[in-house]
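QA checklist item 7 of 12: single-chain prediction sanity check.
[x] sequence parsed
[x] length recorded as 121
[x] structure emitted
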Amino acid sequence: MRMKYLSRFFVLFILTLSIVPRSADAYIDRNTAVLRVLNKAAGKTQVVRIPVGNTIKIEKLDITVRACKQSDPFDAENHFSFVEVFNNSDQIFGGWMNRNEPGNNPMESPDWDIWLNGCED
């Protein structure tokens, strides 16, 4: 009899967990993306701060930041940025960069690498 109540309690507990809505991931919009740019030919890196919606020119590259977001402060800290990169008016990259996992969607070319260092206000 005790086992019967325990099994019913367990089933109800599992059903309750599956019905309770989970909170959506929350992101905080930030105003500036901090990128590290590597010029492979010259062997030098530089850190640049680009305000969201702006474009900067580094030698032949035009780098535009469309968005920069930080994960919810109550989760593990991570930053994401939507970046477009043009080389002499040819787009060589367009997509989201992830600070914690830069290998998922890197901006790599024969001459340049770009990584997201973070987002700031």
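[x] summary fact logged: The chain has one domain: 27-120.
[ ] second reviewer sign-off
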